[in-house]
Amino acid sequence: MSEATRSEQPLMACQECDLLQRIPPLPIGGRARCARCGFVLAARPSDPLELPLVLTLTALIVFVVANAMPLMDLCGGWAVREHDDPRRCAADVAGR
Asked: What H or E segment, with its residue span, contains residue 72?
């Protein structure tokens, strides 16, 4: 490895034993481990689209559920009114 390439690699300290090491570019699915204690310093996922896809699907499910449920407004006493339309809810709150 040339000196120029070596100096471009960032130094990383192990969280377990504080050994400073240079981390080379990792292949897909690769892991960099500490030379002293074996702690995983860095990992490159095998499928880079998996996490964004899972987060997008989860957000979509939460979005659908949040928009399907009525908004609730507690009124004086123990009366409860449900609103499906946020504009109606805002008008009711402003009208009080």
From this structure: strand 71-74
Give the DSSP H/E element, type plus range, for residue 5: helix 3-8
Distance, CA of 53 to CA of 92 (rounded, Å): 39
Q: How far apart are CA 36 and CA 44, in angstroms?
A: 21
Burial 8-31 (b: 16+ CB within 10 A, else e): eeeeeebeeeeeebeeeeeeeeee
User: The tokens 């034993």 sit on which residue?
Assistant: 17
Question: What tens digit of pLDDT does each residue of 4-52 get?
Answer: 555 677 888 999 998 999 988 888 889 999 999 999 988 888 887 888 9
Give yes or no for a contact between 23 and 9, defined as CB atoms under 8 angstroms apart.
yes
- pTM exceeds 0.85: no
Quick check: 22 and 2 in contact, CB under 8 A?
no
- The residues with which 31 forms a beta bridge, in sequence order, are 43
